[in-house]
Write a structure and sequence with these properties.
The protein is α/β, with parallel strands linked by helices. The chain has two domains: 167 residues, Rossmann fold (3-Layer(aba) Sandwich); 62 residues. It is built from ten helices and six strands. Strand 5, helix 9 and strand 6 form a beta-alpha-beta unit. Helix 1 packs across helix 4 and helix 7 crosses helix 8. The protein is globular, with a radius of gyration of 18 Å. The N and C termini lie far apart (36 Å).
Length: 237
């Protein structure tokens, strides 16, 4: 990876990157497909492949099941299927996306800050980050502590408030792989750049018009330009 992508930060252009976990830092598309195929038969569904998973994946996750099954699942079905999904997902090997640690190192050395926000259970997130030995890059790590099935907008609000960045969201980049990531960022006044290598089909992401790149390094480089441009606009206002 080209570590010269990021010039040394100045107070005016110091960026904070909020990393998404599943599908972004964690390279787990195949693990998600395998875990999803565990509860589907009990719901009357057929196993899915990578392309079907990416094409139909959406948040909230109960809507994802509805797309796959052609019907709305009940509350009890959601609880049992989500439990089975998470159990199978935890059993899959952990793989961090290639180049992610080097990219985080380059950002830190340039003076930018980073945190991690995910809708996966907080205990699971912390355990996996420790296992991957990348926790030292993040000034805050937040996973889900309440019921599953929600979106990221409200958790991002709480995350930024805890970081003291709620009033400085113009210098925040959310790097993720899904439309919900971008929607959450925009709802909080932050920037978002998505990448095509995650859990969502690239064509579906491209159709939204959100900034989109093929790699995490390109996503962060584009995000930095967006932060710089916004900082310049605010300085001139």
């Amino acid at each position: 990876m080209n570590t010269t992508l990021f010039a040394a930060a100045t107070p005016a252009i110091r960026m904070h990157v909020v990393w998404d976990w599943n599908g972004t830092v964690k390279d787990d598309l195949d693990a998600h497909v395998a875990a999803l195929n565990a509860p589907l038969p009990a719901l009357g569904g057929e196993p899915v492949d990578r392309e079907t998973y990416r094409a139909k994946h959406t948040v909230p996750i109960p809507d994802f099941y509805a797309r796959l099954l052609g019907r709305t699942i009940t509350g009890q079905e959601w609880v049992s299927s989500d439990s089975a999904f998470l159990e199978h997902l935890r059993a899959q090997p952990l793989r961090v996306r290639e180049g992610a640690a080097e990219l985080m190192t380059a950002l830190r050395e340039a003076g930018h800050t980073q945190s991690l926000l995910s809708l996966c259970p907080h205990d699971t997130l912390v355990r996996e980050v420790e296992q991957a030995d990348i926790g030292h890059f993040f000034i805050r790590i937040d996973g889900r502590t309440g019921p599953s099935g929600g979106t990221k907008a409200a958790p991002l609000t709480a995350h930024l408030e805890a970081l003291g960045l709620a009033e400085q969201a113009h210098r925040v980049l959310l790097a993720g792989d899904g439309i919900d990531d971008a929607d959450a960022a925009h709802a909080n006044g932050a920037h978002a750049v998505l990448h095509t290598g995650g859990l969502h089909h690239p064509a579906k992401l491209a159709a939204t018009g959100h900034p989109l790149t093929d790699t995490l390094a390109s996503a962060v480089a584009l995000g930095l330009r967006l932060v710089q441009d916004r900082g310049t606009q605010l300085a001139r206002a």
